[in-house]
Design a protein that fits this description.
globular, single chain, alpha+beta, 9 strands, Arc Repressor Mutant, subunit A, 434 Repressor (Amino-terminal Domain), 496 residues
């Protein structure tokens, strides 16, 4: 069924329902005057059926309107937001099927209370405009929800990696190398790989690679490092082996046309990480690390470096393996960008397994709690860079007790410079709720060398009054407390 025909059914059904209700007609009364059965009228109003021309004539006469007005896509003002939503094609772009939701069921909800749902949709649209939210924001949010729903573990992609390795004579129990994958790209998939191929294209100075489909040419950045090259090669193999067509030409998405494109890149990225970080050996290495009695930052770094992985690849694999193979599902992942020149911090990636955890993004330009390891390590890195001491990757660990709750997290963080052409430094943090399950799997949880810090979300909402790291006063919290005081006083006035 085409999108247009589905939308036409939905709009037609909503219009019939609204006219019937405006005229105070029951299903039985409209069925009698139009000669159309009650069950078929019900299917029409739910957007499941579209009547034949002769039935449209009968229905229009029964509703005292013309056939042309009944079949046009124009809706009453109260239903306009729904028409805008349907005609934007946004509902059809959302991956409802991934969550087991049938579009027709959504339509039924709209049909049951179209004016109220229309007002709600209009409110959401206004909010999205006020905060400059684009369609791709919704696509990435839907992707995060889908990943969280599956604890970021996908057995079909894990199996695809095993099948690919077997088909290409690679030992699935040993680390696959970059030269092996490069050979497959060139020989099997006929790639023409051009080193430093982006040198004449300054507009792509923040890109690691650009793929030209017509020439099967992969243009590489001259500043791409070995870990980044490994990841890009793995993604290119993933695109081809998994048969993923709806892809971007650039290594990072700069123009998102559909949710399928977002999902395509996520699946290719997963394939790449799983290809170079063998599940069996990685799980064994991680288990050995967790069995240490003391935290060892150098050993944590070596675990990552043994797989020639960038911090994002390494932490991605941690989120795949830890919930699935260690049973630790109460965790979160954050990636934070720091602009040292402006001293601003921005969360540009997050995952929350099992529930929404306290450390999360805030789109209100508030100041994230400086006590988070995610931020304090970036500040440490910036000081080192300013003093010319270090520009590589640094590691940290922290127990974070979230203020006002019983939640305590064990947080691993890596911080590094983004790339030679970027103004940002980047930190990636994995936080896991400390409980009996975690203590049984990670032996160094109670290592006394791991510092405990009380943290909050943003300075503006934090009630830790003696915080030395505070960036700004708790203005939002003070506003809330003032409102509570006013409400309390008003209650007293009512009782007097």
């Amino acid at each position: 069924m085409g999108v247009k025909s589905l939308n036409s059914k939905i709009l037609f059904g909503l219009k019939v329902r609204q006219l019937r209700l405006d005229q105070g007609l029951s299903f039985a009364e409209l069925a009698k005057t139009s000669g159309i059965s009650v069950s078929y009228l019900n299917e029409i109003e739910k957007g499941k059926k579209f009547p034949k021309p002769n039935k449209i004539v009968d229905l229009s006469k029964a509703l005292s309107v013309t056939s042309e007005s009944l079949t046009s896509n124009e809706l009453p003002l109260a239903l306009a937001p729904i028409a805008d939503l349907l005609q934007s094609n946004f509902l059809n772009e959302l991956p409802l099927e991934l969550f087991g939701i049938d579009l027709i069921k959504v339509v039924e909800i709209i049909a049951n209370s179209p004016i109220r749902v229309g007002a709600f949709i209009s409110t959401l649209v206004d909010i999205s405009r006020n905060y400059a939210l684009r369609e791709d924001h919704f696509y990435f949010a839907a992707l995060r929800s889908y990943q969280e729903l599956h604890y970021n573990y996908f057995e079909d992609l894990e199996q695809a990696v095993l099948d690919f390795s077997k088909e290409n004579g690679l030992d699935e129990n040993e680390t696959i190398t970059v030269p092996q994958v490069e050979h497959i790209l060139k020989k099997k998939y006929k790639y023409n790989i051009v080193e430093n191929g982006l040198k004449d294209y300054p507009e792509f100075n923040n890109m690691r690679s650009v793929f030209i489909p017509r020439k099967k040419q992969l243009l590489l950045s001259g500043s791409i490092n070995s870990a980044q090259l490994q990841f890009q090669y793995g993604k290119e193999v993933g695109f081809n082996y998994l048969g993923l067509k709806d892809r971007s030409m650039t290594s990072s998405l700069i123009s998102v046309k559909s949710f399928d494109m977002v999902l395509t890149h996520a699946r290719a990225a997963y394939f790449s990480v799983a290809l170079f970080m063998n599940k069996i050996s990685f799980t064994e290495d991680l288990s050995n690390f967790f069995n240490r009695k003391k935290w060892d930052g150098q050993a944590f770094m070596e675990l990552m470096n043994n797989y020639n992985a960038a911090p994002e690849m390494f932490f991605q694999r941690l989120t795949n393996v830890i919930p699935q193979h260690f049973g630790i599902k109460d965790l979160f992942l954050l990636r934070i960008l720091h602009n040292p020149k402006e001293d601003t911090f921005k969360i540009d990636k997050e995952l929350h397994m099992l529930r929404k955890h306290h450390p999360h993004s805030n789109g209100l330009r508030e100041h994230y709690c400086r006590r988070w390891m995610s931020i304090s390590l970036l500040q440490d890195l910036n000081k080192m860079q300013a003093n010319g001491k270090y520009t590589g990757t640094i590691v940290g660990v922290q127990k974070s007790s979230y203020y006002g709750t019983d939640d305590e997290y064990l947080c691993f963080t890596l911080a590094r410079s983004a790339n030679p052409h970027s103004k940002y430094n980047v930190s990636v943090t994995l936080g896991m709720v400390i409980n009996d399950e975690l203590r049984s799997k990670i032996k160094f949880v109670d290592d006394p060398s791991i510092k405990l810090k009380t943290v909050s979300t943003t300075c503006e909402r934090c009630d830790v009054r003696d915080c030395k790291e505070r960036k700004v006063p708790p203005i939002v919290l003070e506003r809330i407390e003032k409102r509570k005081a006013m409400t309390g006083r008003l209650k007293e006035f009512r009782g007097s």
